[in-house]
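Worked example 3 (structure in, sequence out).
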């Protein structure tokens, strides 16, 4: 049985791989189990590691440090790539308000952390760990630990605080949503309210009866009209065609137009009359509308198109087709000439069968090629992220230069590459499954190491008076900011309850609470609000955890 002892207990590279893999497997398995309708998912790996550490399992310290660091880097970089495409667009009109409210949650929690540290005597590193657990934000914990290591301060205690506060952090946001719903929300507040979404397309049919646009080209009319629109089909004298920008409109022409729903009234005035047919039903067979044209979805897979503007391809004029919509990451985008294409975009193309075959050759439509992620960008991004994280920045009032570290550098580079990569013709596309795999692998490695390291002292910490104090502080850091900002958003600013709930879940990086909100609140407003505020809040919590320690301890 010596081989079994060597496999699990004798420190070696092989033993480290076996132990961390076993902890991850057990944690991921138990993470699928629902307790009172809530599951912890990959986070259960953290608690599996704590149990393993408590019962004396350990790995070589250098191997532990390597696996923990590498797992954290993979996770935060993949996270940056994922949120990058929507990071800057989240600051548009509707998103600014939600992001400011989410920012208030983050800053209020940070302020309460500092106040609680001075009021209770709990050290700031421990309080930062409690804050990370209360906000269910393990990347921020990794950033805090890296900062403490740079400063030569013991870095293991924040993990204990995070572990103690984490369970309450998961259920605390749900409790906050329940409290707001119980005391503030009426039945009519739960009715689905349509949100303005600049990305959401709407299809409408119009008839040309406005003399002001008779005998004018579509290009000239587009310059006259403020609302953006795309004319997908034009019917005249019983024939259907794909209109080019030079097409001249005549009285009585019927147009199928793709635009935003808020623009329909303005376009009705522009064209003259809107038809009553509902063109937005999901079961419409577009190929049965007319016999001359077909509609097909084509995927952009040619690398040289990555980062190019749709209008620069001149597909409508060269091939006589029209692109009505673009699907990207589950979102419909209006196919305007200024739209910058990315690998993986799915374009709805309308035209004759032969023309669509030619366009298919131009765009690629080789779906198989998208299933192979571009690993070059992954590794280059990690190198750039670590290089950025190692650069010291001098900030007035802080004696020690600030470094973004293993968490801050990679997440910033990931966001920048995810956002601007296509514009410099860098292929940053990864399939959703590939990105989820990278994130889950990195986070599992990181949490397994974190739990294993904290496990030896976890129960000693919990079952003593200061452990109960930590739990109470964590509950306060979760519930107070969310309830207070949620009250302001719902009662004073009159934001719908679904968006408020999603904003609170996103500001606390809490997908478990989002699942609860989605299950109990009709419509998709919680998910939209969550996606709007999540990138900024995730980024800020990683950076604030480092700056807070350096500013107050440096």
């Amino acid at each position: 049985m010596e081989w079994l002892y060597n496999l699990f207990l004798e420190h070696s590279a092989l033993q480290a791989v076996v132990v961390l893999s076993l902890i991850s497997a057990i944690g991921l398995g138990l993470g699928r189990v629902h307790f009172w309708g809530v599951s912890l998912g990959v986070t259960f790996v953290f608690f599996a590691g704590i149990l393993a550490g408590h019962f004396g399992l350990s790995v070589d310290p250098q191997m532990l440090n390597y696996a923990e660091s590498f797992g954290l880097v993979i996770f935060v970089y993949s996270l940056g790539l994922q949120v990058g495409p929507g990071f800057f667009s989240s600051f548009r009109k509707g998103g600014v308000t939600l992001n400011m409210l989410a920012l208030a949650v983050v800053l209020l929690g940070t302020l309460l952390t500092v106040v609680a540290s001075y009021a209770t005597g709990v050290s700031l590193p421990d309080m930062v760990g409690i804050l990370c657990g209360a906000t269910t934000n393990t990347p921020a914990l990794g950033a805090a630990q890296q900062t403490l290591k740079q400063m030569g301060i013991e870095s293991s205690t924040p993990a204990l605080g995070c572990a103690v506060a984490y369970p309450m952090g998961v259920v605390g946001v749900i409790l906050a949503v329940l409290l707001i719903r119980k005391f503030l929300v009426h039945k009519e507040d739960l009715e689905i309210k349509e949100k303005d979404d600049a990305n959401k397309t709407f299809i409408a049919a119009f008839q040309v009866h406005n003399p002001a646009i008779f005998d004018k080209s579509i290009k000239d009319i587009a310059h006259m009209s403020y609302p953006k629109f795309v004319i997908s089909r034009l019917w005249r004298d019983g024939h259907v065609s794909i209109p080019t920008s030079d097409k001249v409109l005549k009285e009585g022409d019927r147009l199928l137009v793709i635009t935003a729903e808020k623009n329909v009234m303005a376009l009705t005035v522009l064209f003259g009359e809107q038809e009553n047919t509902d063109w937005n039903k999901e079961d419409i067979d577009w190929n049965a509308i007319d016999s001359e044209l077909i509609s097909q979805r084509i995927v952009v897979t040619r690398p040289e198109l990555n980062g190019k503007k749709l209008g620069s391809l001149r597909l409508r004029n060269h091939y006589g087709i029209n692109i009505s919509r673009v699907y990207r990451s589950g979102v419909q985008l209006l196919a305007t000439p200024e739209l910058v294409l990315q690998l993986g975009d799915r374009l709805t193309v309308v035209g004759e069968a032969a023309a669509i075959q030619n366009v298919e050759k131009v765009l690629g439509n080789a779906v198989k090629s998208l299933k192979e992620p571009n690993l070059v960008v992954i590794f280059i991004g990690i190198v750039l992220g670590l290089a950025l994280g190692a650069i010291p920045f001098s900030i007035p009032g802080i004696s020690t230069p600030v470094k973004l570290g293993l968490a801050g550098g990679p997440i910033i580079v990931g966001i920048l590459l995810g956002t601007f990569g296509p514009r410099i013709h860098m292929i940053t596309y990864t399939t959703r499954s590939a990105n989820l795999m990278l994130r889950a692998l990195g986070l599992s490695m990181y949490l397994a190491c974190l739990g294993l390291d904290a496990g030896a002292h976890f129960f000693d910490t919990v079952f003593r008076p200061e452990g109960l104090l930590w739990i109470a502080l964590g509950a306060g850091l979760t519930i107070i900011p969310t309830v207070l900002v949620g009250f302001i958003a719902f009662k004073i600013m009159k934001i719908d309850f679904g968006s408020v709930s999603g904003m609170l879940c996103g500001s606390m990086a809490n997908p478990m609470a989002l699942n609860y909100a989605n299950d109990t609140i009709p419509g998709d407003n919680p998910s939209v609000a969550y996606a709007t505020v999540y990138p900024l809040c995730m980024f800020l919590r990683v950076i604030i955890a480092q700056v807070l320690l350096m500013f107050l301890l440096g």
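Notes: DSSP finds 20 helices and nine strands in the chain. The longest strand covers residues 202-208.
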